[in-house]
Amino acid sequence: MNKIVRDHYPVENLPADLREGLDDQATVRVVIEVEAAAKPEEPLKKRSIQETLDDLEQFRRGRTTDPNIGEAVSRIRALRDEWDDE
User: What is the distance between the alpha carbons of residues 32 and 30, in angstroms, rounded to a whole number?
Assistant: First the structure.
């Protein structure tokens, strides 16, 4: 992040809008920081129900199938047995 700091900067050298309410003979601390440029958000695309359903179906096709209960129990027992052997 870029930052400029000036300590004891004369108020008389500030622009008029920043001098308001300050004594011209005073000094101030001036900190200038570059703000991060905000990226404009893209508006959400309106989707039809059919597009949403198509995307869900594509997601479902890409998933691996869940194991059945018997396979899951077998895997857990095998892992448990590994720990018992040690």
Answer: 7
Domain segments of the chain: what residues? 3-33, 49-85
4-55 residue pLDDT tens: 999 999 999 999 999 999 998 999 999 998 887 777 777 888 889 999 999 9
What's the alpha-carbon Rg for the chain, to the nearest Å?
33
SS3 string, the chain, reads CCEEEEEEEEHHHCCHHHHCCCCCCCEEEEEEECCCCCCCCCCCCCCCHHHHHHHHHHHHHHCCCCCCHHHHHHHHHHHHHHHHHC
